[in-house]
């Protein structure tokens, strides 16, 4: 990591001031594998995180990798990287690349992560952790053996509203949790005439590999470990123009948490009309919480107190009083967006690197999600309850 000049001129006073109270800033070379949807999001986040959160570690966009030289060069120019390559090994083993972000297809995650850890570099990996449960376990083993910081990309639980919901539940504001209902529903494959593509091939690209991990992660974060599951997983449109569909369209799960709370979850890529249906309801003995990502800057809270005639759900608009909001905007109700969630992830990853201490969610947390997904698939196939601990 390189030291950079932390002195800036205050044009209002003509005096010198330092970021972080005079703490020397350090550059860290970032390598991003994949320049598509999530590759772009992480590149933008790393370019912005220093300004948003005044981090001591300042990312330097060192190298980006894509499948073709011309595409890699396009991403380099568009996102502001110093160099580009179509060889992931070259990026991973480059001395100037000090931290790795994996935003490539799931089947490549394990090989890249294992190589990065062997090279002694921190790794941030997009979800799902591996293309299979075996891959996820191998990636956790590699992370633990290396001792390097590691994180998995579950961004939706990082909205200020969901962070606040997690805080309210942990503080006992709604009492003991008795029931959780969650969904991750979208309609990008609701049209049966939409053509087959990479999304319709392979378990990791189905709804259980693509959408379900986000809400399962959310349930684990809000309520705690899941003890057992009963699931049904279906492919509604078994064929599409261009080929057969080899993965699932939607799924439903009943769960029992370690705490004793009951739960229900539904996941779908064919939920007509739903665009970003990451939503949950949490019922407790003294209150309840509701959230919907399509209105991500609102949280609905019910408290069982006061006159019955005036009780009801209260809409809370997020603002500077809520976690991680003020870094983006000083005005309550103005709101944060999807890209801001990725910037929060970038801050957390840099914190893990700087302190050497794990920051949630680590690879081990990603494995916990993978185990629940695997239990659900096994439950659907065998038509029975499955204990996650037996996976």
UniProtKB/TrEMBL annotation:
<feature type="domain" description="GFO/IDH/MocA-like oxidoreductase">
    <location>
        <begin position="164"/>
        <end position="290"/>
    </location>
</feature>
<protein>
    <submittedName>
        <fullName>Oxidoreductase</fullName>
    </submittedName>
</protein>
<dbReference type="Pfam" id="PF01408">
    <property type="entry name" value="GFO_IDH_MocA"/>
</dbReference>
<keyword id="KW-0560">Oxidoreductase</keyword>
<dbReference type="InterPro" id="IPR000683">
    <property type="entry name" value="Gfo/Idh/MocA-like_OxRdtase_N"/>
</dbReference>
<dbReference type="GO" id="GO:0000166">
    <property type="term" value="F:nucleotide binding"/>
</dbReference>
<dbReference type="InterPro" id="IPR055170">
    <property type="entry name" value="GFO_IDH_MocA-like_dom"/>
</dbReference>
<dbReference type="Pfam" id="PF22725">
    <property type="entry name" value="GFO_IDH_MocA_C3"/>
</dbReference>
<feature type="domain" description="Gfo/Idh/MocA-like oxidoreductase N-terminal">
    <location>
        <begin position="29"/>
        <end position="154"/>
    </location>
</feature>
<dbReference type="GO" id="GO:0016491">
    <property type="term" value="F:oxidoreductase activity"/>
</dbReference>
<dbReference type="InterPro" id="IPR036291">
    <property type="entry name" value="NAD(P)-bd_dom_sf"/>
</dbReference>
<dbReference type="InterPro" id="IPR050463">
    <property type="entry name" value="Gfo/Idh/MocA_oxidrdct_glycsds"/>
</dbReference>
